[in-house]
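Lab meeting, item 3. Inverse folding demo.
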């Protein structure tokens, strides 16, 4: 699979308000990478439904090992998504990759 569908920004949600002020959350970029769009299979789709979430997009990127999924978000073509799962895989060429299951956000955050 080629990673030629676009560039994804991987972000973390941070409180950027000054100490003592009302919290102000922003998405802060921690990395960006090329990605390829994958098709979410029925097993993944139904597993997400059981977990009370949904999968709006499934993408493959180069491996993202150093960070878990807690507080991770993705920005693709201006759309914001929450990373539901970061599945570490090996592709057909033996390269280490990440499959990111994404849920589109209803309420958008500022991007810092």
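The presenter then showed the designed sequence:
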């Amino acid at each position: 699979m080629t990673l030629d569908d676009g560039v994804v920004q991987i972000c973390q949600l941070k409180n950027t308000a000054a100490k003592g002020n009302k919290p102000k959350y922003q998405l802060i970029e921690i990395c960006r990478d090329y990605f390829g769009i994958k098709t979410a299979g029925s097993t993944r789709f139904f597993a997400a439904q059981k977990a009370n979430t949904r999968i709006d997009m499934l993408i493959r990127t180069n491996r993202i090992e150093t960070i878990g999924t807690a507080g991770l978000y993705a920005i693709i073509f201006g759309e914001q998504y929450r990373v539901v799962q970061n599945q570490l895989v090996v592709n057909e060429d033996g390269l280490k990759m990440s499959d990111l299951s994404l849920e589109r956000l209803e309420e958008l955050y500022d991007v810092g």
